């Protein structure tokens, strides 16, 4: 299933000032035919009148296919062809009539999307057009004399693959010159040979047709789709017009909002009382739920006659539903806090405006300080000449290109925000039931037709140019500056990059005369695909004829594309391009060579290092947890002799170690295992005496870091040029894994007890490639190489690059860990702390990827308000409090002279008035999640404040010490506090000392920061694999690391992060290695995953921070369970050969595989389907029909046994297991089973989840299932 990506713009683009085009005769201009594959057309729209157009071009072979409410009369000399396709849709979803929605079984458009796109391209000029008076002027397409052929392949917002391919086939047959396709699949992009738009557009390219396609509206890096190099991929940006609806507050402050408020009775010229939805909760509804203003959540007595301030629960919320809920309860208006405020214009049943983050902060400050706040919503106006413009739209999908990363995508950006164009009057879902003929929409669906129109314009002026030449002209003439002559920026004011806008903003006037072009043909495209390892079968699917790759293929970066990308620079590279001169006067074709060198070249003498590439930066990801995991109740492990327990060596790649910590004493340990080949490398403040029988090895690496940043001494920070840790992170992770037992450990009395690692008898070998929180690729690879050489059994690596994850062949941790896997070493790595879906890193299938969750202990520091209400907060307040109430004041109310209230609310330095805050507790807000919280404390302390209450969504995850009392509170507590402060003239509060609470329920719960799946590189592999304790973990620390300890030198610290959960899993892997020394890394991984639990300590399903049920994309297979993992019953094993087959299924090239294996490896043809890789979890990322998935299990128990299967129901998919009973007679026996999946309902681009569990009398072997049904 594909999804629709949802005229002043042409003036903004200067299309009327192109003499070369405007001087062309009408018959030349009208000889160009544009095909639009979309939701159809509303032929009666004035935008499709054919006044002044001559006969239909004779070369056009299309048809006007009749159907429901569509006859041949509906075609004319503008709409010269119209077809529709529904067989694919009905084969998957059943008859159209089953939908109970308005539709026409014909090319007629009931959605509006296709009409809007078509009129943007070729719409005739129509005067006096507006949406309720907004944007009044002449509506027109970019090429109003061009012809239109309509191909309707989309129904109810979805477009099936088979229907799209049929539409492409007909469009090619009919003889169109340009194809516009404003739709696509949800990311990640499929490989080109399996994606209908890529396949159809390739055939179009072969036939000389330019294809323009939308990049998608998925916000994030790596999310761009329709990225095949033969497609013109279009991002979205703003124009210099917007539609503000201003908000006047009772204090006469004016805020800019956005909406469609166009009737005078919506603005009665008066101020209305305003109330927050959370304060107006109906009986029995939590305030948080009411804040979202959904149906039946608001108390009509409280909101009657008022404007209600609402929030979004998710970006996908139905905004109109909120307005209806308010009207039904008697409210008169809505103010919605919405990050998409400028981009989402819609009509509602009451006055409504959408406001952004900055305006919301001002509004909140006003409501906090005013007893009876009021506001007036003004009528919406049209504002032109806005600066800066263009600006990249926040929603526009971004590069890099995850399929062919040497091809920069998107290619171009064009107007895609609040575009006014023709509409289907029957599409009333977004128009309050009103029948309108023109509408305002935003999306890359709106920018794509702009690029298609410019391509048509060029085709008129240069009818013999190839699709590649037209594409080159558009790309190479694009502009990088806005109308203020500064660089184009993103929505957050950062400077945009080619992964945002491609070559820049489209410039039609320059594109018509580009001077030089980069041309390429089908043969060049075949060579490019060969360079990425395309198989014979894949190429035949594109070309319909046998095609063979030459050997060796031309490097992918030498494909003659108008942009230049080198995605894997492993040394000096020569890039070639050929340009064609298409100007006038004497000249010749030109060749050039661009010599590029990596920033740093770090040579490592160890022969295990097989490749060198440009070094990138990685970041560090941050003992009761072992009691929570029941580590002491594992008799199989605890009965092992110490010499066996201590024969396991764990390598830790991190920021080093503080060797004097009590956690690294070697009491009771015997000699270092003779097989260990490592060293204790000397350095600054580090001698051989710092190693012992616990710390058996220590190395450090700084060549790459210094090659990039210069000498370490330039940092002006504390460091040691040795394996000694000045950061604390490496000491913390190492002691979590293998720290010796140390009694009476605490952080200022918090968490008091015995500190220990999960395997306190194991050995540690330390590898330090990290300096000042950053770790260079080349240093990391050197560390992996040494760890493998030294003979470690486990590698723990709590660091990684910022998302999105790079492909495995270009990413240091993936490469290093593959070599470790080859040598029988388990690698456990943190998934990252990036909060959002698709941000999990370290996701290669040979890595054990770890998310973070809570344990049943927390450290609250309660606040007592003057009304005796108690709020739960979090902090490290360990000194005796003064036992008295202090006055409290909002930072926004304590602004120093000349500082706006909103700025002061963030409590940064030099923003607070010391006279106002002296002796008081100051209530502060975060400007960004990355704010320096310690800076706020310092500002308050320097101003004489007595304490700080910080409103922080990470309240329970960020424990910081401070010189004054401070606590962090969450959203619910913040609302209670603000409510109290608004109703009390002299509010007061007392911050109590922090306490340790054990036995907290529910636990575990997923940490809000823990990076989530799906896996953006190999989506059939569910990631993360597992979750483990990662919140408020107490472990050893470097006493010289005082940045997070208020300057105090401490030996143990409490921190949170997937960096803390990763070592827990590393320790469990070491525990299993002690008991099962001959198990492979895959077997250990399987044992950990298949025995994990999805239940918390209340016997309910594990939840996320927001109390929703967690899924495999949050926790993988579940929460780690060491006691069960030690005896899993069955395991899913795989080796390097299986991994190679798996990588081949994703199109890995010979060169890429050699990067991993150090020897030439060739893929068999056809490859084994990726979903049949013998992984302990089961994923099918693109289920386009019935699928059979195979797995092989190995019995590792004792004696004969029988396992029975149990399948958890998967929404929209029927499933059967064959055989459903497995009978084993002896340990080591293998059996293969098959799961047959039969989808009967699309999952609409989302994954649906289930599980398969094999159980006997003792064991439960569970595999989560994740399926995306197309």
Can you tell me about this structure?
This protein has 1270 residues and is of the alpha/beta class. 22% of the residues lie in helices and 22% in strands. The protein has 34 helices and 60 strands. The protein has a 7-stranded parallel sheet, with helices on both faces. Strand 41 (863-865) and strand 42 (870-871) form a beta hairpin. Helix 5 runs parallel beside helix 12 (444-461), helix 6 packs parallel to helix 7 and helix 22 packs parallel to helix 29. The longest helix is centred in the middle third of the chain and has 18 residues, at 444-461. Mean pLDDT is 88; it is low at 587-613. InterPro entries: Peptidase_S8/S53_dom (IPR000209), Peptidase_S8/S53_dom_sf (IPR036852), Peptidase_S8_Ser-AS (IPR023828), Peptidase_S8_subtilisin-rel (IPR015500), Peptidases_S8_3 (IPR034197), SBT (IPR045051), Subtilisin-like_FN3 (IPR041469).
Estimated helix fraction: 10-25%
Structural class: alpha/beta
Low-confidence parts: 587-613
How many angstroms does the end-to-end distance come to? 5 Å
Q: Oligomeric status of the shown chains?
A: single chain
Q: In one word, what is the shape?
A: globular
What would the average pLDDT be, to the nearest integer? 88
For the biggest β-sheet, the strand order reads 3-6-2-9-11-12-22
Number of alpha- plus pi-helical segments: 34
Strand content: 15-25%
> Can you summarize the main beta sheet?
7 strands, parallel
Instruction: Please tell me how large the radius of gyration is.
Output: 32 Å
The beta-strand count equals: 60
InterPro entries: Peptidase_S8/S53_dom, Peptidase_S8/S53_dom_sf, Peptidase_S8_Ser-AS, Peptidase_S8_subtilisin-rel, Peptidases_S8_3, SBT, Subtilisin-like_FN3
Family: Belongs to the peptidase S8 family.
Keywords: Hydrolase, Protease, Serine protease, Signal
GO molecular function, one term: serine-type endopeptidase activity
């Amino acid at each position: 299933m594909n999804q629709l990506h949802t005229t002043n713009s042409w003036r903004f683009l200067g299309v009327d000032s192109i003499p070369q085009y405007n001087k062309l005769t009408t018959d030349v201009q009208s000889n160009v035919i544009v095909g639009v594959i979309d939701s159809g057309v509303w032929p009666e729209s004035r935008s499709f009148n054919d006044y002044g157009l001559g006969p239909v071009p004779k070369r056009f072979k299309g048809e006007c296919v009749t159907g429901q409410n569509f006859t041949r009369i509906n075609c004319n000399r503008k709409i010269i062809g119209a077809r529709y396709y529904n067989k694919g849709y009905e084969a998957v979803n059943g008859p159209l009539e089953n939908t109970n929605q308005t539709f026409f079984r014909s090319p007629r458009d009931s959605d509006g999307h296709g009409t809007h796109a078509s009129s943007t391209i070729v719409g005739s000029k129509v005067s006096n057009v507006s949406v309720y008076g907004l944007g009044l002027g002449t509506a027109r397409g970019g090429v109003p004399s061009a012809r239109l052929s309509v191909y309707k392949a989309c129904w109810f917002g979805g477009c099936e693959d088979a229907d799209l391919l049929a539409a492409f086939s007909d469009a090619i047959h009919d003889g169109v010159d340009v194809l516009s396709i404003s739709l696509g699949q949800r990311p990640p992009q499929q490989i080109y040979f399996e994606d209908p738009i890529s396949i159809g557009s390739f055939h179009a390219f072969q036939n000389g047709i330019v294809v323009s396609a939308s990049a998608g509206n998925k916000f994030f890096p790596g999310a761009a789709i329709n990225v095949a190099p033969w497609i013109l991929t279009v991002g979205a940006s703003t124009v210099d017009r917007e539609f503000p609806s201003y908000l006047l507050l009772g204090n006469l402050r004016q805020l800019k909002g956005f909406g469609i408020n166009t009737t005078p009775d919506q603005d009665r010229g008066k101020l209305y009382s305003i109330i927050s939805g959370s304060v107006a909760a109906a009986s029995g509804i939590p305030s948080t739920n009411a804040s979202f203003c959904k149906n039946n959540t608001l108390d009509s007595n409280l909101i009657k006659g008022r404007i209600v301030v609402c929030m979004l629960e998710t970006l996908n919320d139905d905004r109109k539903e909120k307005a209806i809920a308010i009207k039904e309860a008697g409210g008169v208006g809505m103010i919605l806090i919405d990050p998409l405020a400028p981009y989402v214009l819609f009509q509602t049943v009451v006055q409504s405006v959408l406001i952004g983050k900055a305006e919301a902060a001002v509004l909140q400050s006003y409501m906090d300080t005013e007893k009876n706040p009021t506001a007036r919503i003004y009528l919406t106006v049209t504002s032109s000449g806005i600066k800066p413009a263009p600006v990249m739209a926040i929603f526009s999908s971004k590069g890099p290109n995850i399929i062919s990363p040497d091809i920069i995508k998107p290619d171009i950006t064009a107007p895609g925000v609040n575009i006014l164009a023709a509409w289907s009057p029957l599409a009333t879902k977004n128009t309050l039931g009103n029948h309108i003929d023109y509408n305002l929409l935003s999306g890359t669906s709106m920018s794509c037709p702009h690029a298609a129109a410019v391509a048509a314009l060029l085709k008129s002026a240069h009818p013999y140019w190839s699709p590649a030449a037209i594409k080159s002209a558009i790309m190479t003439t694009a502009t990088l500056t806005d109308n203020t002559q500064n660089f184009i920026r993103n929505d957050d004011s950062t400077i945009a990059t080619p992964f945002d806008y491609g070559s820049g903003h489209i410039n039609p006037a320059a594109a018509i005369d580009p001077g030089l072009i980069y041309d390429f043909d089908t043969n060049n495209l075949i060579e490019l695909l060969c360079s990425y390892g395309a198989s014979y079968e894949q190429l035949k699917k594109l070309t319909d004829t046998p095609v063979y790759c030459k050997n060796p293929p031309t490097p992918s970066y030498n494909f003659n594309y108008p942009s230049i990308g080198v995605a894997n620079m492993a040394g000096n590279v020569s890039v070639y391009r050929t340009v064609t001169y298409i100007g006038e006067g004497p000249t010749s074709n030109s060749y050039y060579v661009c010599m590029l060198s990596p920033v740093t070249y770090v040579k490592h003498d160890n022969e295990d290092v097989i490749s060198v590439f440009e070094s990138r930066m990685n970041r560090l990801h941050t003992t009761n947890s072992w009691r929570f995991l029941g580590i002491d109740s594992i008799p199989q492990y605890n009965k092992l002799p110490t010499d066996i327990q201590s024969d396991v060596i764990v390598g830790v790649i991190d920021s080093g170690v503080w060797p004097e910590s009590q956690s690294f004493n070697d009491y009771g340990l015997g000699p270092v295992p003779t097989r260990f080949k490592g060293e204790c490398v000397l350095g600054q403040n580090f001698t051989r005496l710092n190693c012992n029988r616990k710390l058996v090895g220590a190395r450090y690496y700084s060549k790459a870091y210094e090659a990039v940043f210069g000498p370490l001494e330039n940092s002006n920070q504390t460091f040691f040029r040795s394996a000694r840790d000045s950061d604390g992170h490496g000491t913390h992770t190492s002691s979590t894994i293998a720290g010796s037992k140390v009694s009476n450990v605490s952080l200022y009395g918090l968490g008091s007890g015995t500190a220990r690692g999960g395997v306190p008898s194991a050995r540690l070998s330390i590898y330090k490639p990290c300096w000042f929180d950053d770790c260079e690729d080349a240093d990391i690879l050197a560390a992996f190489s040494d760890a493998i050489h030294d003979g470690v059994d486990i590698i723990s690596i709590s660091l990684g690059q910022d998302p999105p994850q790079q492909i495995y062949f270009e990413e240091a941790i993936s490469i290093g860990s593959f070599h470790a896997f080859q040598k029988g070493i388990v690698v456990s790595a943190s998934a990252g702390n990036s909060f959002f879906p698709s941000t999990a890193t370290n996701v290669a299938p040979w890595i054990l990827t770890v998310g973070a969750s809570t344990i049943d202990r927390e450290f609250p520091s309660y606040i007592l308000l003057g009304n005796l209400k108690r709020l739960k907060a979090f902090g490290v307040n360990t000194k005796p409090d003064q036992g008295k109430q202090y006055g409290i004041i909002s930072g926004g109310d304590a602004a120093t002279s000349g500082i706006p209230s909103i700025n002061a609310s963030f409590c940064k330095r030099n923003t607070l008035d010391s006279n106002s805050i002296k002796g008081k507790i100051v209530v502060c807000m975060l400007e960004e999640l990355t704010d320096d919280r310690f800076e706020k404390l310092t500002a308050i302390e320097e101003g004489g404040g007595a304490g700080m209450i910080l409103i922080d969504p990470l309240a329970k995850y960020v424990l910081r010490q401070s010189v004054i009392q401070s606590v962090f509170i969450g959203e619910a507590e913040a609302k209670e506090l603000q409510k109290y402060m608004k109703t009390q003239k002299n509010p007061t509060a007392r911050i109590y000392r922090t306490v340790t609470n054990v036995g907290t329920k529910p636990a575990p719960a997923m940490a809000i920061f823990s990076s989530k799946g799906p896996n953006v590189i190999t989506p059939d592999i569910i990631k993360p694999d597992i979750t483990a304790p990662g919140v408020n973990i107490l472990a050893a620390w470097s006493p010289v690391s005082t940045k997070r300890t208020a300057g105090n030198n401490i030996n143990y610290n409490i921190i949170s992060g997937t960096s803390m959960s990763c070592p827990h899993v590393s320790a469990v892997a070491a525990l299993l290695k002690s008991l099962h020394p001959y198990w492979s890394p895959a077997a250990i991984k399987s044992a950990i995953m298949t025995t994990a639990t999805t239940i918390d300590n209340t016997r309910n399903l594990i939840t996320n921070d927001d109390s929703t049920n967690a899924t495999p994309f949050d926790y993988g297979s579940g929460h780690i369970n060491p006691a069960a993992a030690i005896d899993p019953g069955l395991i899913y094993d795989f080796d390097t050969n299986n991994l190679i087959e798996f990588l081949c299924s994703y199109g890995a090239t010979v060169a890429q595989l050699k990067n991993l294996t150090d020897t030439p490896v060739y893929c068999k043809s056809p490859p084994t389907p990726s979903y049949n890789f013998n992984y302990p979890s089961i994923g099918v990322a693109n289920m386009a029909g019935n699928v059979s998935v195979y797995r092989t299990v190995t019995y590792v128990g004792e004696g004969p046994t029988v396992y029975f299967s149990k399948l958890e129901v998967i929404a929209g998919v029927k499933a059967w297991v064959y055989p459903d009973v497995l009978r084993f007679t002896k340990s080591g026996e293998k059996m293969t089973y098959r799961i047959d999946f039969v989808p009967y309902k699309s999952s609409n681009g989302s994954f649906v989840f289930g599980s398969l569990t094999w159980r006997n009398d003792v064991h439960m072997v569970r595999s989560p299932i994740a399926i995306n049904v197309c």
